[in-house]
Amino acid sequence: MTAGANRLLLAQIQRAATSAGLDAVGVTDIAPFTQARRAIDERKAAGLHAGMWFTYGRPERSTTPANILTGARSIVVCALNYEPSDSLTPERPATDGCGRGTVAAYVASDAYGALWAGLERVCEVLKGNGHDAVAVCDDNRLVDRAAAVRAGLGWLGHNTMLLSQELGSWTVLGSVVTTAELPLSDAAQPDGCGTCRRCQTACPTGALDTAGVLDANRCLAWLVQAPGIFPPEHRVALGDRLYGCDDCQTVCPFNDSAAASARGQPVELGLRSERATHRNTVDLAELLQMTDDDLMAAFGHWYIPRRRPEYLRRNALVVLGNVGDPASPAVDEALRRSLSSWSDVVAAHAVWAARRLGRDELVAEARTAGLGDRDPNGLVAAELARPVPLRHPAG
Predict the structure, then answer these.
(1) CA-atom Rg of the chain in angstroms
(2) Pick from 325, 383, 301, 305: which is nearest to 349 by CA?
(3) CA dihedral 147, 153, 158, 159 (to 10 degrees)
(4) Which helix (H) or strand (E) holds 137?
(5) pLDDT surpasses 50 at 21
(6) In the chain, which segments carry CATH 3.40.109?
(7) Interhelix angle for 344-356 vs 360-368, to 10°?
(8) Alpha helical stretches, state H, 70-215
(9) Interval 100-145: pLDDT, tens
(10) Which pTM does this prediction carry?
(11) What are phi and psi of 180, to 5 degrees?
(12) Can you tell me the distance from the alpha carbon of 346 to that of 72, in angstroms, rounded to the nearest whole number?
């Protein structure tokens, strides 16, 4: 194809993406992402990955986009902005005393579904013009943020997210690798974070102490998705977060400016986004009394380690210990049920929640009834021996 034909094809792609609801489109080449590979290797060697597989599992593959498609020549990178307030569901009062757990905005809506539909439209355009194309979305075959930066969609912020002057960081990213040789986008946006440290200061556990570097060992958004016990040293910091953590985004001034711009208002950096006051929540009592099948039907679209419902119950019990009313009959019921669970993960975290709420008598009753008899990994025993910061006095 001639250069002029390639420009026309790109314009057709951009129209298709826009009509499908995507908010930004850029193009980069298929050269290896050497800087991203170096950063991944360095952080993995430093132990900052905390066992996370998605980014760190096979960096030799994810940083070499030519491997995705034979004859690939270009990557079309797309971004979809999601408004946290748009994904809210009507909130009902929590079952008495148990409270509600908050859910991160990116899982509260089907942002990836909408993004995938847009990527498929881009593929259709490319294939209709005689080119091969493969969509890559939420997939460890490609380092999506590095591709987005090189395609001119933004820069990597101090919170490690892709940041854009126009869209802020409330975006999901996806790409189409194609055999078409498309015109490349302009140079990447300059780093706009400067000396701002809001995301670093706001991080509940200090996971962003080094700007632009995430310590996954302390990142709540990762820890709620990781298998095993929830780290005791971060349970109080989890607060009411059942799944995910948006703190480093809600304080970002570029999310303020993007929101204001989208509403046609003057852009004033420095004002906390009104979206930080909107929250998606789940009734903890309802979650803790669900069967495995019901729980997976309701929340199975989230990433739950090994597809085992006990890990979502684990999170809920930590939150219950942080927000529950110790005098509530609903809390009493939830704790008793969880202390008698066949799962040592659930029972162990129920011990922590009960003791944090000052309900040690429930733990004593459970021990008399056999708590700890089903403890193949010593999780319950470890919880019984571990000091717990008391939140409420008994009664």
Answers:
(1) 23
(2) 383
(3) -80
(4) strand 133-137
(5) yes
(6) 3-87+106-178
(7) 140
(8) 105-108, 111-128, 144-150, 198-202
(9) 999 998 787 778 889 999 999 999 999 999 999 999 998 889 999 9
(10) 0.88
(11) -70, 140
(12) 48
Residue whose C-alpha is closest to residue 73's, from 133, 119, 153, 139: 133
Give ∠ CA 357-360-362 in degrees, rounded to 5.
100
Task: Place 75 in a pLDDT band, splitting at 50, 70 and 90.
Answer: very high
* C-alpha distances in Å from residue 352, one per residue of 89, 220, 260, 380: 30, 18, 43, 9
Question: Is residue 362 within 8 Å of residue 340, measured between CB atoms?
Answer: no
Q: What is the mean pLDDT of residues 302-309?
A: 88
Task: Give the largest Cα separation in the chain, rounded.
Answer: 80
Rounded to 10 degrees, the C-alpha dihedral 135/139/143/147 comes to 20
CA dist 266 → 256, 259, 295 (Å):
11, 10, 44
List the Cα angle 246/235/370 in 5-degree steps. Answer: 135
| Residue 282: how many other CB atoms lie within 10 Å | 21
CB 58 within 8 A of CB 140: yes
> What's the pLDDT tens digit per position in 265-297?
433 333 333 334 446 899 999 999 999 999 999
Pick the CATH number of 3-87+106-178 from 3.30.360, 3.40.50, 3.40.109, 1.10.10: 3.40.109
Query: Closest Cα partner for 289 from 226, 239, 220, 335?
Result: 335
Contacts of residue 62, defined as CB under 8 A and 6 or more positions apart, other chains included, come to 55, 140, 141, 142, 143
On whether the CB atoms of residues 315 and 222 are closer than 8 A, the answer is: no
DSSP code for 342: S
Compute the distance between CA of residue 302 and CA of residue 29 in angstroms, rounded to an integer: 32
Pick the range with the lowest mean pLDDT from 68-77, 78-87, 152-161. Answer: 78-87
> For the chain, what percent of residues have pLDDT higher than 90?
74
Q: What are φ and ψ of residue 162, in 5° steps?
A: -70, 125
According to the model, what pLDDT value does residue 383 have? 96
pLDDT score for 49: 82
* Closest by Cα among 166, 352, 194 to 259: 166
pLDDT on residue 269: 37
Q: Which residue has the tokens 């094809």?
A: 9
